[in-house]
Amino acid sequence: MARVYEMVELELKGEAPIGSQVEVDVKAEITCDEKTWNLKGFYAGNHIYKVRFLPEETGTYRYKITGVVTGEGTVEVCPADGNHHGIVRADGTHLRHEDGTFISTFGTTVYALAHQTEEITEETFSSLECGAFNKIRMCVFPKHYEYNKNEPGHFAFHRAESEKDVVFRDNLGGERSVKPFDTHRPDFDFWEDFETKLNRLFDMGIQVDLILFHPYDRWGHSHMAQESNLRYLDYAIRRLAAYPNIWWSMANEYDLFYDWKMEQWHEIETYISVNDPYRHLLSNHKCFLEYDYGREAITHVSVQTGVLSRVAEFQKEFGKPVCYDECCYEGNLKETWGSISAKEMVNRFWKVTVTGGYCTHGEVILEDDIVTQEQQDNAILWWAKGGKLKGESPARIKFLRDLVESLPAPLEPYAVGLNKIMLMSKEELNSVMNVVPEDMRGFFSIFYKMGEKEKLYQFLPAYSYAGHIGEEVYLYYLGTDCPARFRPEVASGKSYRAEIINVWDMTREVVEKDYQMGDELRLPGREYTAILLNVQV
Amino acid sequence: MARVYEMVELELKGEAPIGSQVEVDVKAEITCDEKTWNLKGFYAGNHIYKVRFLPEETGTYRYKITGVVTGEGTVEVCPADGNHHGIVRADGTHLRHEDGTFISTFGTTVYALAHQTEEITEETFSSLECGAFNKIRMCVFPKHYEYNKNEPGHFAFHRAESEKDVVFRDNLGGERSVKPFDTHRPDFDFWEDFETKLNRLFDMGIQVDLILFHPYDRWGHSHMAQESNLRYLDYAIRRLAAYPNIWWSMANEYDLFYDWKMEQWHEIETYISVNDPYRHLLSNHKCFLEYDYGREAITHVSVQTGVLSRVAEFQKEFGKPVCYDECCYEGNLKETWGSISAKEMVNRFWKVTVTGGYCTHGEVILEDDIVTQEQQDNAILWWAKGGKLKGESPARIKFLRDLVESLPAPLEPYAVGLNKIMLMSKEELNSVMNVVPEDMRGFFSIFYKMGEKEKLYQFLPAYSYAGHIGEEVYLYYLGTDCPARFRPEVASGKSYRAEIINVWDMTREVVEKDYQMGDELRLPGREYTAILLNVQV
C-alpha cells in the first residue's frame, strides 16, 4: 500500500536498452489533483524499467509512462504511518522534515558500508540499533585507504574492457592502470544491494548523507571524465531521488581531488540541483579548503574541523544549517584524526549541538592483536566498514540525542559573554557602543583595535557554548570548565527549572525549581557539566 | 660576605632630602679591574641612603659615592655559592642565567603578594616550598578586583594631601575621588616589607616577574601623571635593579588602561631600558591586544592566551623567549578565566613547555562555604593573595619541572606532521615544493590556496605538541589524543630510550631501550600521555 513519505515504485517490462543503459528514454508524468511531476525512469536490468516517485500528500496519483516502455494507471496514496516524516529540508538554520517535524541530526560515518560482507553489514545494522544516530555518511564508490583496502564485490558500473587504460596515482601513492568505467552500463547487482541498505536505513529512520565522489580510490572512480561523472549522477538521480532519506554530499574532502577544477564541482552541483526533482539536501564536504556554502544550490554547511565554535559564525555567514560532518574520530590510531578520546568525541558533540549545529561521529578502535600491515588493511574499523561499535561515545551521544529530542524546538546559538562581541562587524560594534554604559566603553573600544587574526586567537579558546529556544529553554555546556557557581543567563522575570547534567555519566538532576535571572546555581565543579533551564508555565 | 650574583648594599647616613626623596643626588662609581659602573643610590628613609650593586665576577670592587652623601671603599667579592646563578637573560629563544645556566621557568601568580597580612604571607611562602614554581608574577601596587578588595597596609608612595583630588572610575565601575600619590615621597615601610619578600623569593631561587603597573585599581595608581609614573620607576630602579631575580613586567593587561596612549608605554619601556644598569628582562603583558614584542628593548614575549600552539610562531616572529604568563587559572569560579580544571591546567603547561615555551600557573579555588559578597571579597585565592595551594596541578607541574630540569639543554619546538607547514610563508612553501615527492605535490598545493583565517582554523585544533634538543632528546605530548600505537620521529640511525609518561598520574616507564626511527611504540591509549626519547650513547 502506498503511503505519504514512502517511495512508490512502478515496474515495467521492456526490451533491454540498445546502447546506453543509463540514458534511457523513460518519461513519467505523475499527476495528483492540480499537481504534475515530470520524472525519468531508469533501467534496472533483466528487462525491467522502473519509475519511482515520492508522494508527499494523500490522494490518487495518476501516472503516464512514455518512451521505450509505456504504461498508465493510478496509485492510491494513504496518509503517512507516523514513523516517516518526509524529506529533510533546510528551514533557515534548522532542519525540518517535509511534514514540518524538526530533526536534529546525530551523524555517524561508515564510509564503505556499501562494500562490505553480509556478516559485517549485519553487525553494522545491529550496532545502529543503539539509537545514537539518525544520520549516516556513506559512499557510493568503494574506498581505498589505510585500514580499508578490501576489494568490493561489485562496482556501480562495469568497466569498458575495450578502451585503453586510465593511468593514475592512487591516494596512497600507488601507480594504477585500469580500464575506465563505462557509465552507460550500471552493475545492477551493486545498485540492488545498495538499495537494500538504503531501505533498511530508511526503516530505521536514518538519514543517508550519500557521498557521491571521494578521492580514496585505486579503481578509477575519481579519475572518470566529467561526462562520465554526470552520467553516473543521471543514473543515481533517476534511481535514488525518490528515497525520502537521502542527502547529496557531492564529495568527501572534495579539495583532495587535486586536479579537479572548481568549475567541475560547480557543474556537478548544478547538475544535481537541476535534475533532482525533489531537491534533496545538497552540500560538499571539505578537508582544508572551504567550499562556498553561500552558493544558491548548496542547502547546508558540511565541514570538517576541530574548531567547535563556528556554528553561529557559519549560520550568520550563510543562513543555513551547519553540519560538523567530521571533527576527528574516537579511536586509538596513530593518526591524529583517529585518536581522540571518547570524552573528547562527546565533548565535541555537545559543543556543536548546544550551539544549534549538527555533529557527526566516527570510530576507529584498532584491537591490540592487529600487528601486520595485512592485518591492519583487513581490520574492521567502524568508520570505514562498520561492524561492532566498541567505543564509549555512542551511549553518550544517545543520551544527548534523547535530551535534544525532548526539547520543544531546535536550539539556536545563545551568545553569552564575549561571544556576543566575537561575531560583530565594526558597524555592529558601533551600534552597541551607543548603548553600553559609559564605564564599559573603554573595554569595548578594544575590539575596534583587534585584527582578524588577533580576534580569532583571542576568542577561540574563550568561546562559551550555549543554546536557547526563545525564552523557553537555555542549555549551557561547560566542557572542561569547572565552575562551582554559575549564573546562567535566562530571560528576565521568568522562572526556570534548572537541571545539572553530567554528560559523561549521563545523569540529570533538577537542582532548582525556581531559577531566575541573576540567581546563582551551585555546580559540582566537575568537567563535562551542562545546565538545562526549562521555563515554568 | 659579598658573593658573585648576590646584591651588595652600601649604607650611608646623611641629611634627609629636602624636596624630592626620590630624585636624590647620590652617584656611585663602582670599579673592578678595568670595569666601571655608574649607578644611582636611593634614599631609604630615616637618614639612610643606600647604593646597591650586583657583582657578577669575583674581585675587589672599589666604590666611590658622591652627592648628598659621600663615601668610598672596597668590597671583596667571593665566588658564587652555587645556589645562585645571576640575572636571567634571553639567549635567543631560551632563558639563561648570567653564569650560563639555562633556566626553564614554571611560573605562578600571586598578584597581591605585596599587600597581605603576615599570616597569609607565611602560608604563601610555605606553599611555594612545594617546588613547583621558580617564577612568580606579582604587583608593586595593590589590587582591586573581585575576590580581592582588602585595603593594603602601605602604599608605595604617600599621598599629596594638599593637592586636589584625582577623580576616576575604577576597574569595577566605582566612582573614585582620591588625593594623588606624591611620587617624591616613597613609603619606606612599604618598600622594606616588599624587599623582605623579594629577598625570601631570591633565597628560594624564585624569579620575580614584577608587575609595575596594572589597571585593577581604586586608589589611583593607574591614574598618575606620566611624570609620576616615571619618577616611581626611577625609585624602583634605584632600589631594585641590583636584585638578581627580578624581571620587569611593565604591566599586567596593559591594554586595559583604556586611556593610555601607546606612546606612554613606549616611554615607560625606554625609561626602564635606559635606566636599568643591569638590563633585566623586560616585557609587557597583554589581555587582548598584543604588545609589539619585536621592539628592541623588549626581551621576551609575555602573553595571555588559551591558544597553546603559538610558541613556535612567536619564536619565529620575534626570535625571543615565549612566556605564556596567563592561560586561565585552575579553579571553580563562575568566571571563565578562573574555572579550568586541574587537568586542563596541567595540559596547558605541557603543551607550552614541550614546545619550548614557559608557562605560568594560577589558582582560584573558592571554598563552598563562601557565600556573601563580603565573604567573597575577603576570600583567600592564591592568584591574588597567596595562602595555601589547594589545587591538584602544582604537584604535576613539579613533576614536569623535574623532568625538564633533568634534560641536558632547553627544549626547542619540534615540527611534526602538519605543524611543519603551518608556519611556512609562500616562499618557504615554494622551496619545499621543489623537494617533496611528486605524488605529494597535489597535497602541498592546497596550502597555497588557504587564506590566513582558513589556515588558523585548520591548524589550531590539529597542532602537534613536540619538542627536541638537537638529536639528543625528543619529547612528545599527546593531550587528549589517545593513540595506542605511535611512531615518534627521531633522528635516523640513532638509538633512543623511550619512556611513556602519564602526566596526570606522574608515572614514567621505560618501554623500549632501542627505539629507532620508524619503529612503532605501543601506548596505553589514554589521555594525557607524553613520550620522552633520550639518545643512547
What overall geometry of chain A do the principal axes of the alpha carbons give? globular
**N→C terminal distance of chain A:** 43 Å
Kindly state the number of beta strands of chain A.
32
CA-atom Rg of chain A in angstroms: 25 Å
Tell me the strand order in the biggest sheet of chain A. Answer: 19-18-17-12-11-23-21-20
Structural class of chain A: alpha/beta
- CATH homologous superfamily (4th level) name of the largest domain in chain A: Glycosidases
Task: Please identify the top-level CATH class of the largest domain in chain A.
Answer: Alpha Beta
What low-confidence regions of chain A span 5 or more consecutive residues with pLDDT below 50?
none
Q: Helical percent range of chain A?
A: 10-25%
The most extensive contact between chains is: A-B, 61 and 60 residues
| Beta-strand content estimate of chain A | 25-35%
How would you describe this structure in keywords?
6-stranded antiparallel β-sheet, homodimer, Immunoglobulin-like, 8-stranded parallel β-sheet, 537 residues, alpha/beta, TIM Barrel, globular, 24% helix
Walk me through the topology:
The structure is a homodimer of 537-residue chains.
Chain A: E1 2-3, E2 8-13, E3 26-32, E4 35-40, E5 42-45, E6 48-53, E7 59-67, E8 71-78, E9 88-91, E10 94-97, E11 106-109, H1 118-128, E12 135-139, E13 157-159, E14 166-169, E15 175-178, E16 181-186, H2 188-203, E17 207-213, H3 226-240, E18 246-251, H4 262-275, E19 282-283, E20 301-304, H5 311-318, E21 322-326, E22 330-331, H6 342-354, E23 358-360, E24 363-364, H7 373-377, H8 382-385, H9 393-405, E25 412-413, H10 419-422, H11 426-433, H12 438-449, H13 452-459, E26 465-469, E27 473-477, E28 485-486, E29 496-502, E30 507-515, E31 521-522, E32 529-535
Helix pairs in contact in A: 3-4, 6-9
